[in-house]
Fold this protein.
Amino acid sequence: MARYGMVIDTKKCVGCMDCVVACKVENNVPEGYNRDWISYETAGKFPKLRQEIRSERCNHCDNPPCVYCCPCGASHIAETGGVVLIHEDKCSGCKACIAACPYNARFMHPEGYAAKCTFCIQRIEKGELPACISVCPTYCMNFGDLDDPQSKVSQLLEIRKHHCLIPAAGTKPQIYYLT
Amino acid sequence: MKSVSRRKFLQISSATFAAAATIGPVNYLSKGSKLIADDKLQKGIHKIPTFCNLCFWKCGAIATVKDGTLWKIEGNPLDPLSNGRLCPRGTGGVGAYSDPTRLKYPLIRTGSRGSESWKIVTWDEALGFIADKLNKIKAEHGPEAVAFFAHGIGGNFMKHLFKAYGTPHIFAPSFAQCRGPREVGFELTFGDPIGSPERTDIENTKCMALIGSHLGENMHNSQVQELSKAIENGASIIVVDPRFSIIAGKAKFYLPVKPGTDIALLHAWANVMIKENLYDKDFVSNFGFGFEQFVAEVSQYTPEMAYTETGIEPQVIVDSARELARSKPASFIHPGRHVTWYGDDAQRSRAIALVNALLGNWYHKGAFFKPVKMQVPPYPYPEYPEASQPRADNPDRIYNWADEEEGLPTGIRDATITGKPYPIKSWVVYATNLMNALPNQEETQKAINNLDLMVTVDVIPSEIAGWSDVVLPESTYLERFDDLNISPFKIPFVGIRQPIVSSPDDQKPNYWIAKKLSEKLGLTNYFPWNNIEDYLKTRIESAGLSFAELKENGIILGSKKPIYIEDGLEYNFKTPSGKVEFYSPQLADKGLDPIPKYIKPDEPPAGFMRLLFGRVPVHTFGSTQSNPILRDMIDENEVWINNDIVRQNGLNNGDYIRLRNQDGVVSNKVKVKATERIRTDCVYMAHGFGHQSKALFNTYQKGASDSQLVTRYKTDKLMGGTGMNVNFVTIVREA
Amino acid sequence: MHELVNTRHNLQIDPHLHIWGWEIGVYLFLGGLVAGMMIISGFFIFTGRTKNTKCSCFLIPIIALIAISLGMLSLFLDLEHKLYVWRMYLTFQWTSPMSWGAWILLLVYPVLIVNVLLKLPEELYGNFPHLRKISEYLNSSHSILQTIGMISMIIGASLGMYTGVLLSALGARPLWNSSMLWILFLTSGLSSAAAFIHLVAREEEERRMLAKADNSFLIFEFVVIMLLLVGFLTSDQVHIEAVKLLLSGEYSAIFWVFVVSLGIVIPLIIQLMAVNNKIRHTVIAPIMVMLGGLILRFVIVSAGQASHWSGQVFR
Ligand SMILES: Nc1nc2c(c(=O)[nH]1)N[C@H]1C(S)=C(S)[C@@H](COP(=O)(O)OP(=O)(O)OC[C@H]3O[C@@H](n4cnc5c(=O)[nH]c(N)nc54)[C@H](O)[C@@H]3O)O[C@H]1N2
Ligand SMILES: Nc1nc2c(c(=O)[nH]1)N[C@H]1C(S)=C(S)[C@@H](COP(=O)(O)OP(=O)(O)OC[C@H]3O[C@@H](n4cnc5c(=O)[nH]c(N)nc54)[C@H](O)[C@@H]3O)O[C@H]1N2
Ligand code: SF4
Ligand code: SF4
Ligand code: SF4
Ligand code: SF4
Ligand code: SF4
Ligand SMILES: [Mo]
């Protein structure tokens, strides 16, 4: 079975938020809510500064606490590529999963169910790229099967230095950042 | 005819918003948007090509309509500008349709100018009112008494109308408030301007230096895409900026220059390249003019001398100069775009051009290519009438290198205030927010108060609309045809804009407005076409292309042409000497410095810092803050202040403050961004926020307006540009 | 210098902003209180000491029924999709403490009802003779009573523990990440329950007993809190940062003043003096203990949400 993930090149990302806008439009994310967001991290003292910019979203963790804590079985790992999804019609809106996610990737949709990035499952099942990736003007985001050593994502991880977010939380995130 | 107060006006423009703002998720599939085309498009998914108008770059786009409503807009893969990907503003373009503040009906002012009180009128009344006044002004003062301002391709038909009317006074803020200095600086040096889109070959470069130009925040799409390719290819980037910009974070060298001292740095680079014999000797000896004088001039600009002016370590200056030279000719200094900073801007641009000349990179791959353009003849219109008086914005051509097509907006503003050299009686403004774009708002208001007729055509109630006598609501780009996009670029192409949905209220497209007004002005012979598609078809077919194909694909590409020396291109420097002019006899003739000279910038008074400004990626100037999608990304600007200064002032990150400038103007309240990413002698904010028009109710007074604080400007002696980075501000605590 | 800026302005998902509000605090408090009540009354029933502890054994189950219902109401109020509570009962998710909790709550009701049925007011028996039969049956043998007492204690303890495990299982919020949390909540539930019974009990003997028990619970609770803090302080940076919220940060004043001093130490001193006949028993100490228990839940719920893993990558 495939294991989908993203590999994002922080050297190219300019933090323009196109990915955030695209997600909003594609998935009709309500005003005031976002499924993805940008982090700008700067270290040092002017003018000797280092900066990393990251487009962040649900990491579709391999060990997802949000799924484990869900009392309704609404949060689940999908057949397709291990994508972490929510059955809206099973969700009670208890918010345990929101509290359980160390990345704060989830929010409560105003219609009363937990929501977050879906890896644009409706697009990837048709063989399209997720919306955020398909617009990115710097081509810094890559999507594919991490279990397939031939995929672009696997190959990038092979040759480039990378990290993922908050590994100490033990969630085994499936989004990697190239540095 | 109903009379409406400002409040009513608010209600009028907010009616759709009220509906959208009810509890629950907002539907961006702009509900109720109707398709222009026939019923069979009402079901399922349909894609219609057009080009973006969220800025002036004109990226090819494809709009998707789902069950008869507008869903999303993506890049057109055929388009060389977008390569199938839009920038965040373009992606958020659907919000232009659903913007709750949109103008809906033609309005005529009822209160005093600037009071934003109106009555709703019909198009016939509004255009009749305008035509009566314009006819009267022509009869009493001549057509020169009318000034027409426009920015962007949408202005073409109205511009044509005013040329037909007989006025030479056509203006755009894109020269004297934006690109002008670099066009002049490069033309004086190489005989050709940079042009727009820039002729920079970022994608193939091995080393690029950016002077301010903050690519990545400045989201001009093709450049950002090429930048990322350059990074991928391992190009080295040198960033010169008082602020640690986004691109500075990706640079090999970041030079934290003291604002206004770039010429010292540029000459020091030249100095190093000459002293260390790193420059392209063949190119300079074959094509250079006045090189000896240049060498003599820059010999004073040692890295040590430049250090005392710019604050950049001498070793960093030397190393970055070597870095540039190492990769020549595939290395270059980017000419920048918004370069009206200190009033010495055309000379700074010349200094940039001259270091480029040392790199011998003109027409070289990885530096400056030669743009090519699709040959599409203009529509066969009758000749325009000759103006009977010389232009009033630049009397006696004091600014010798001012552009004729884009004019000097502050020049015509002066003429409107003083009535000299002759009175100016009307301004007609299309898609430019002069209140934000020009320095010193008070002078703009003074000028407007001298007019007999002030008209604005806009899509939202911008500040300038609020100061008008008549406001005409235009259809957004998603609802109209427009003129063809024939931008000069790497490959010839032509693009079409076509309507996706129909206008939700009583908005009309610019060509319709222009044609209707021509009827009322008795200028119908200038509008011989019956409908816009006839016009477009005529032009496209006269170029031997298929109109049907253009409508279907959105873009027609021409055949590849040589754009580099590497492709077999040959030099042709259109300067008077026929060479690259290190020393400019043209400037010497006018008593100006034939080789740029560094002039120390004014120091901020004690307790003040220089006000700098720029772009945020998700907004275009002040025109997108009310767009519901883009506003949701960033809804107010922050003022960047160095951590040390924030601490000295006992402030914290996120505190609200106000800024007061040297002339006592106090800004709206604005959040402090306490950061290491800026020098201590300047502050920075994104342009376009802090809206003063109450009718922009969802963004009114959110953040601070740099335009309000730019009361002073220094005029460029060569071309009349308005240097605006010459204002100083101090912190006012917010109680 | 380190700057980490993110573009989110999403009130619902930003770390220090609210996921769970007062409703969950109230629910956790009432859950703990009921747990304590069930354990105490179960203990007295199990040990057959119903004579001197009428209040604990016969009144408290009724109050507990009301309290747990209020707690459920509070939980229900927190649900974003109130109509969909039933979705929790379509499934059992063994990895989810909340699922356990939902089912435990379901068990609490029959157990409490059986408890209530042990002894009902005479008037009720008049109207419903069947009830008298049930009561008589339940009281008919020592082993039935012992079983009831035992089950009450077990279900009560499960309820009390689960309120802590619910939070401590959420590894994303470092301040909740302590296995001491369920012990704390259980002890705090016991002390609140003891304090409550102390308040409403009529008989001096029972009140004395509960005051004494309460004092032990409070001492134990104090020790648990200290161990919890020490546990965090000797852990990694993230957990140290988290516990700083209580020690010196945003929540320190309310924690030290209301939870530790007014909720534990001072009522403990008062009750110790009262038990040793230095002063008279008043309602003050028990009320302080209960308020302390409530505020403890509020503090842990909000400070826990304010604690987070650092998203920073540069070290
Ligand atoms: N998202 C977005 N993109 C845009 C636009 C937009 O509205 N929105 N507008 C477009 C247009 S029309 C233009 S003209 C361009 C403008 O974009 P650019 O030409 O890239 O930008 P400027 O506004 O000139 O420059 C701003 C940068 O110059 C730095 N700077 C200020 N003073 C000095 C100085 O003295 N020396 C040096 N070396 N640097 C200095 C500032 O710190 C800031 O980083 O952007 C284009 N792209
Ligand atoms: N203080 C300060 N001044 C500046 C700058 C700065 O950074 N700071 N930047 C300078 C630069 S680089 C430039 S290029 C100029 C830009 O100056 P302008 O071209 O004036 O830019 P905007 O302020 O965005 O105004 C554009 C107006 O067009 C309207 N509009 C948008 N789409 C349409 C349409 O389809 N039809 C019609 N009719 N109207 C439309 C918008 O609502 C808005 O009111 O400003 C310059 N002035
Ligand atoms: S669209 Fe691409 S470049 Fe822009 S912020 Fe997102 S990931 Fe970065
Ligand atoms: S990032 Fe958060 S929401 Fe996404 S799978 Fe991991 S824990 Fe769950
Ligand atoms: S909010 Fe919904 S998805 Fe999340 S844990 Fe509760 S029931 Fe599951
Ligand atoms: S993958 Fe899809 S849902 Fe996830 S952030 Fe990207 S656009 Fe949004
Ligand atoms: S650069 Fe962005 S806003 Fe400008 S035309 Fe292209 S996509 Fe539209
Ligand atoms: Mo510009």
About this structure: The first helix of chain B runs from residue 6 to 20. Residues 1-27 of chain B have pLDDT under 50 and may be disordered. Residues A 58-61, 64-66, 84, 101, 103, 105-106, 116, 171 surround iron/sulfur cluster (ligand 4) (CB under 6 Å). The interface with chain C takes residues 633-635, 643, 675-677 of chain B (CB under 8 Å).
